[in-house]
Write a structure and sequence with these properties.
It is a single chain. The chain is α+β, with helices and mostly antiparallel strands and 130 residues long. The chain has one domain: 2-Layer Sandwich (Alpha-Beta Plaits). Helices cover 38% and strands 16% of the residues. The protein has 6 helices and 4 strands; from the N terminus they run αααβαββαβα. The chain has a 4-stranded antiparallel beta sheet.
């Protein structure tokens, strides 16, 4: 069974039990580990992991979807789309940023879920112990 099939089964089960349409994003341990070397913001001066997040997209965005956001600029906040993830770094914190899940979902017409960088590292730590 493919990852996409598993996602669809979970989405269907949630809908049948709770009557909610919830997109399910699945990433393998290997896919999660690959986030670290491709993170474009780890080398930022005074990098603060609490001001970093990744949005996991429901599917790989098309070039047309990427073009809808690629030139958007809200300094000092930054983002980079890599594969099915959007890396976000907000050096002043997430309190006022426009760059978060709903912003990208609305602009790109694609579902996603965000996790902060500390949470991602904790998930990797836990997964690595099994």
């Amino acid at each position: 069974m493919s990852v996409r099939d598993i996602s669809l089964r979970i989405e269907t089960a949630i809908h049948q039990k709770y009557d909610y349409d919830v997109p399910v994003m699945i990433r393998t341990h290997e896919e999660m580990k690959k986030l670290i070397p491709v993170n474009p913001f780890l080398a930022e001066e005074n990098f603060d992991p609490s001001k970093m997040a990744v949005i996991f997209l429901h599917e790989h965005p098309s070039e047309a979807q990427i073009q809808k956001v690629i030139k958007i600029d809200y300094p000092p906040d930054k983002f980079k789309i890599i594969g099915s993830e959007i890396f976000i770094y907000c050096p002043d914190g997430f309190g006022r940023t426009k760059l978060y899940t709903n912003f990208f979902e609305n602009k790109m017409k694609i579902k996603g879920t965000g996790r902060n960088w500390n949470t991602i590292n904790k998930i990797l730590e836990i997964a690595g112990k099994k």
